[in-house]
Amino acid sequence: MFKTDSEQHLLDTTDSVSYPVMEHFLTIQGEGVHTGRAAYFIRTAGCDVKCWWCDVKDSWDADKHPRMKTGELANSAKQSGAHIAVITGGEPLLHDLGPLSISLRKRGLQVHIETSGSSPLSGHLDWITLSPKRFKEPLDENFPYVDELKVVVLTNKDLEWAEKNAVKCPEGTRLLLQPEWDTPKSIPLITEYVKRNPQWGISLQTHKFLNIP
I need a surface site. Which of 9, 82, 101, 158 has the fewest CB within 10 A? Predict the structure, then answer.
């Protein structure tokens, strides 16, 4: 497709920005509303929340991982054939996601993000999944833009936390509770809660059942 000089300059500029990246790969989205869809995951490095049950603790230290240019990441995502790119972490909002999101969208991909919301939103995002953590609360300024609220549940305190965050979300936000993988006792807790509160649904980590990344 023909690009004007200004459009080409914007693309060239955004393609040259770099981020610390732990990994990037084509997989199947395993959680939330878009479960089961092919997606290209870009896992940025660096985290300011650091949940003790996190299954990607290697992403916490940004200095441990190489920096990659947005153009390289966006080309890999495009070449994968996926229609969705998911920016995750770590905590991706520690970085200005404007350049990366522009590079991805210029190549025709939808840009999704999963975030704790502990930093201000940035970038051109098509779907925002907020997964708030009690270790560091999300910023109130982020709630008006949330498409999906996904709360990891271990105990009743997490259900209270889920409701506290749900009232801040806009009408129409998809509300999901997700059992922590290594805490199976949370499953009956969640299922009984959803029966009593049908505005909530259940998210499962289906990629772990499928044994895929």
Answer: 9
100 to 1, 12, 91, 107, 116: CA distances (angstroms): 20, 12, 15, 11, 19
Cis peptide preceding 172, ω within 30 of 0? no
Q: Which amino acid is at 197?
A: N
**How far is Cα 181 from Cα 65, in angstroms, rounded to an integer?**
26
Supply the pTM of this predicted model.
Answer: 0.91
Do 188 and 195 touch, CB atoms closer than 8 A?
no
End-to-end CA distance of the chain: 34
- Triad 213, 34, 47: Cα angle to 5°: 55
User: What string of DSSP letters covers 97-138?
Assistant: -HHHHHHHHHTT-EEEEEE---S---S--SEEEE--BTTBPP
Computed from CA positions of residues 199, 172, 84, 67, in that sequence, does the dihedral angle turn out positive or negative?
negative
Which residue has tokens 């009956």?
Answer: 188
3-state DSSP call for residue 169? coil
Q: What is the pLDDT of residues 8-54, one digit of tens each?
A: 555 567 899 999 999 999 999 999 999 999 999 999 999 998 887 78
Tokens of 13: 């500029």
- Number of neighbours of residue 174 by Cβ within 10 angstroms: 17
Kindly list the structural domains of the chain, giving each domain's residue range(s) and its CATH number in brackets, ordered by start: 5-152 (3.20.20.70)
